[in-house]
Amino acid sequence: MQKQDPQALTNFDFLARSFAHMHALGHPIDISAVTGNMNAQQKAWFCARYEHYRKQAERARTRALEVC
């Protein structure tokens, strides 16, 4: 995101990772509600990070279940 406070990016990344982890654990996540007050650029960046972390969390969960 252009001209964003580095701390804001860190916070958005943390939120994206947290919601992705919650999704992988089976909690319903309404990503539209999460991103409702974000501008278009923030929303696009957040959704891309969320998808990245969601896929990562689901792969980790699948691997953990295969080991058990």
Description:
The protein has 68 residues and is mainly alpha-helical. It is built from three helices and no strands. The protein has helices spanning 6-24, 31-34, 40-67. The N and C termini lie far apart (40 Å). The mean pLDDT is 88. This is Glycogen synthesis protein GlgS.
Structural class by helix and strand composition: mainly alpha
Query: Quick one: how many beta strands?
Result: 0
Q: What is the overall silhouette?
A: elongated
The largest sheet, given as strand count, sense and whether it forms a barrel, is: none
Give the low-pLDDT segments. Answer: none
Number of helices: 3
Nearest-integer average pLDDT: 88
What is the rounded distance between the termini? Answer: 40 Å
Approximately how much helix is present in the residues?
A: over 70%
Assembly level: single chain
Strand content: under 5%
| Gyration radius over CA | 13 Å
Secondary-structure element series: HHH
Pfam families: GlgS (PF08971)
Organism: Kluyvera genomosp. 2
Protein name: Glycogen synthesis protein GlgS
TL;DR of this structure?
The protein is built from 3 helices and no strands. It is an all-alpha fold and about 70 residues long.
What is the topological layout?
Elements: H1 6-24, H2 31-34, H3 40-67
Pfam families: GlgS (PF08971)
Protein name: Glycogen synthesis protein GlgS
Organism: Kluyvera genomosp. 2
